Prior knowledge:
- By secondary structure, the chain is α/β, with parallel strands linked by helices.
- The chain is built from 6 helices and 11 strands.
- GO terms for molecular function: GTP binding; GTPase activity.
Amino acid sequence: MYEEELEVAIKVVIVGNGAVGKSSMIQRYCKGIFTRDYKKTIGVDFLERQISLGGEEVRLMVWDTAGQEEFDAITRAYYRGAQACVLAFSTTDRDSFEAVRSWKKKVEDECGEIPTVLVQNKIDLADHSVVEPEEAEMLARSLGCRLFRVSVKEDVNVGPVFRHLAACCLEEMHAEEEAMGMGGYQPPAISAFSLPVSPLHKGSKHHHHHHGAIAIKSRGRRIFRTHHAGKNMLRGACSII
Length: 241
């Protein structure tokens, strides 16, 4: 399989309180449309868009997740496997701004640390803002995220959000591939034996029993490369120990 036949597939999740514009952002970015009608997302939905970045073909699979607490158990399952995240809040909704930290934690609980951006939507309603610009900047710095101020309605700054995330993921992928070429990459390990428990973990919430279980430990997050024709995903190899 030749390199030019490959494209990169990146899963991006958009999280945040309900009615901040997550679904509208995906519709705007992937379909180029905007609708004023608000419909609550039930569970999850996703769209795709293919872009060219740095000479590479990148397929962004953008997942829209429900912001309501009643769907929490469903949406958490769909965070898994995400390679990038958008934390969204609304200029006119103070609660959505204050909930950003909890949304970031939910994603990290399932995915670990992944490239993440903070998005302030509805900047076209600046006259009704309940979030000061300095507050948004301070939050972005404290979270270690880049801040994007966008208007999905007016199509302002939406595309740069996803291009930035794609560029971050490509940078990680290339670093991993370079490490593999230099012999520095270690594939995930599979063990069919019970794992020892560190004395430090006994009695803690991290103390799990693995009797009779097969444990898979990943030593690195992989961005998928897919074949154009068959869309065959190439994942990191595993080693059996």
